[in-house]
Design goal:
The chain has 442 residues and is of the alpha+beta class. Helices cover 33% and strands 28% of the residues. The chain binds adenosine-5'-triphosphate and magnesium ion (3 copies).
Amino acid sequence: MRLTRYFLPVLKENPAEAQIVSHRYMLRAGMIKQQAAGIYSWLPLGLKVLRRIEQIVHEEQQKAGHIPLLMPTLQPADLWRESGRYDDYGQEMLRIRDRQDREMLYGPTNEEMITDIFRSHVTSYKELPLTLYHIQWKFRDEMRPRFGVMRGREFLMKDGYNFDVDKESAIHAYNRHMVSYLRTYERMGLTAIPMRAASGPIGGDNTHEFLVLASTGESEVFYDEAVTTLRLGGIDIDYHDREQVAGIVQKFTSFYARTDETHDPKAFEDVLEVHRKVGRGIEVGQIFYFGTKYSESMGATVTTADGRKVPVEMGSHGIGVSRLLGAIIEASHDDKGIIWPEGVTPFHAAIVNLKQGDSEADAACEAIYKGLQARGLDPLYDDRDARAGEKFATTDLIGLPWRITVGPRGLKNGVVELTSRRTGESEEMSPEAAIDRVAQIY
Ligand code: ATP
Ligand code: MG
Ligand code: MG
Ligand code: MG
């Protein structure tokens, strides 16, 4: 993309309404625009990051054998009457009437609808295990929408639902979700710690939340510092291998890590004192095993191998896709702006032309631009007729991890400069070498 042909409405001033850094930078970098409290338009740069995050979520879910579908945002109230949640859900649910005076709602989550789909089509254990998921907009009329996309009212969530014939198989689905989530967050450059959580209105007692440590997080967290050093890294995962998957879950849940809702001060004392940490975290996902809570009330049954008819075992598993943008920025920024991890960056590299209009500099920038594209990359070429300082400020603010700076002086010696946004370190090299280096990184 050439910046002069893009739509990147950056703000020079700090917006007064933004209380935390991620919200401030998302507004300043022209990623989002608020349309009403907790409701945002996604401007082109914001949408690009959102799509990259969605893509990673899709890939990791499908590696785990989970199948995408798409349910609507609007749901009939009657489905929720079957589970009893229409009355229980309270003010967070946005209730709507259509022209026929039918009661509808904007879905805050989809347990009822997915259970309805399941019971309409599946009757036998032979069709199990089955996990269906979608990435769809949700609406929750939050009491205090704030912090930009972190606590929106309309927000994008991945929610997945497993259907299994027995508890063992449902626990394996739970474990699969935990492992696929760990991998998902790691690919986004995040450390998200699974913490034992309380179940809330969805019900059930086997649940973990995934928390990204950040001083601006809304949850209070208590943990053994050792848990923060765990990584999946590049290990091969066979999601059919129950033992391997359970082993990873065991490893990641072996240290004390809880939110304030489940915190047990007595048990916390068993943690080595120097490792005992209290802090704050951002909830970027949650997994639940809840057994037959919905299948019983909604009549979703399957016949077993020995001919019995049983309510199907279920769980539900969510990732806060739009909240993740805020969480990533909270975890990765400096005083100049965002620092995108390579896994989610909106553009792979910036090309900054120090002297727009200089025929050699222009030609070199064009060659690098086309060279990066030929390697399958998506560069942003700052081709504005602007001062170097202004161009640097923009690429720093929008957080592109790599910058190739091109100017007449360097070109006399056959070099451009490759700069890391994270370390600030620069290295001179030929334009071809810069293209190679960036291509190797991705
Ligand atoms: P919270 O405790 O922050 O209100 P939740 O526990 O109510 O979240 P879940 O029902 O577990 O949310 O939904 C799954 C994920 O969706 C959460 O882990 C979170 O990342 C995201 N999420 C929930 N509410 C919002 C919101 N209002 N804005 C953005 N993301 C949200
Ligand atoms: Mg909530
Ligand atoms: Mg919560
Ligand atoms: Mg939750």
